[in-house]
Amino acid sequence: MKFTVYREIFFSSAHRLRNYNGKCENLHGHNWRVRLYVCCEKLDNIGFVLDFKEMDRVLKNLTDKLDHQNINELPSFTETNPTAENIALFIFNESKKIVDDERVSVKKVSVWESEKSCATVEV
User: Fold this and answer.
1) Distance between CA 59 and CA 75 in Å, rounded?
2) Per-residue confidence at 45, pLDDT binned at 50, 70, 90?
3) CA atoms within 13 A on the CB side of 104
4) Does the chain have fewer CB atoms within 10 Å around its N or its C terminus?
């Protein structure tokens, strides 16, 4: 049996897509939504997968680096195109470094750049 929980956070930032033929090649902004999924097979002694407050802390720590920034100018995206997919991958990899242990692991990260457009990275 597996247990999965998720938590969401929102942030705003700008980016431009490199090597893209269209309007998104120009600098533009989004109000992003990020959803972090964490799973485990055995709940902790309280009955949690992971405390939602801890998930909030992880998400805030990571998205504060992106919030109100031009993502293209951040060290992780000077070479990597700041697509929704790559932003999801960045948050996935960075959250795994913080969250994963012998009991709990990051399962999935979804990033919405609009209500209709979402990219997901999952194990």
Assistant:
1) 19
2) very high
3) 21
4) N
In 3D space, the residue among 75, 83, 87, 92 whose CA is nearest the CA of residue 25 turns out to be 83
54, 106 contact by CB (below 8 A): no
| Pure H helices in the chain | 52-64, 84-99
Q: What is the pLDDT of residue 111?
A: 98
How high is the pLDDT of residue 5? Answer: 98
CA separation for the pair 43, 59 (Å, rounded)? 21
Name the nearest CA neighbour of 50 among 102, 93, 12, 104.
Answer: 104
Is the CB of residue 39 less than 8 Å from the CB of residue 105? yes
Neighbours of 88 (CB within 10 A): 22
Q: Are 4 and 83 in contact, with CB atoms under 8 Å apart?
A: no
d(C-alpha 4, C-alpha 88), whole Å: 18
Q: What is the pLDDT of residue 48?
A: 98
